[in-house]
Specification:
single chain, mainly beta, two-stranded antiparallel ribbon, 11 strands
């Protein structure tokens, strides 16, 4: 019978800011709604990247249920494009709050699609597509299990 090894205790964690709303400031993300809340993430989870490449977005509402729950914290790798059409990304639309959505690209429109079928997709067309900014892609999900 195999015995469980003792867990390795490590203090190698990094503290990442938890953002509620994200406003776009020039090429950087303006952390306007930072309450000071942080999460500790094991350094190994960043896979050698710098902690400044990540932010944590708090999920509001149920539009991305069941994959993402209200109150989940999602560690986002900051980048300004998605791997492909149909990927899930943190998106800033119209200078408003950042949102987590599935993003589909078409010739002259962008569809922001909630995973929860009870929420309608948002379709952005023509010049308004310029106002859609990808903030990053979800890498780590932090969820506290409710009793």
């Amino acid at each position: 019978s195999s015995k469980l090894k003792n867990p390795t205790v490590t203090t190698d964690t990094v503290s990442l800011p938890v953002i509620g709303n994200i406003a776009a400031g020039y090429d950087e993300i303006a952390l306007e709604d930072w309450s000071g809340e942080t999460v500790e993430v094991p350094l190994s989870y960043l896979k050698g990247r710098n902690k400044n490449e990540f932010i944590v977005l708090k999920v509001h509402g149920d539009s991305m249920f069941p994959e993402y729950h209200n109150g989940d914290k999602v560690v986002i790798l900051k980048q300004d494009s998605l791997p492909r059409s149909g990927s899930i990304g943190a998106v800033l639309y119209d200078g408003e709050t950042a949102t987590l959505k599935k993003v589909e690209y078409f010739d002259n429109k962008i569809k922001l699609i909630p995973l929860n079928p009870t929420f309608p997709p948002k379709i952005i067309t023509g010049p308004d597509c310029e106002s859609v900014h990808i903030i990053g892609i979800p890498k780590i999900l932090i969820r506290e299990i409710e009793e």
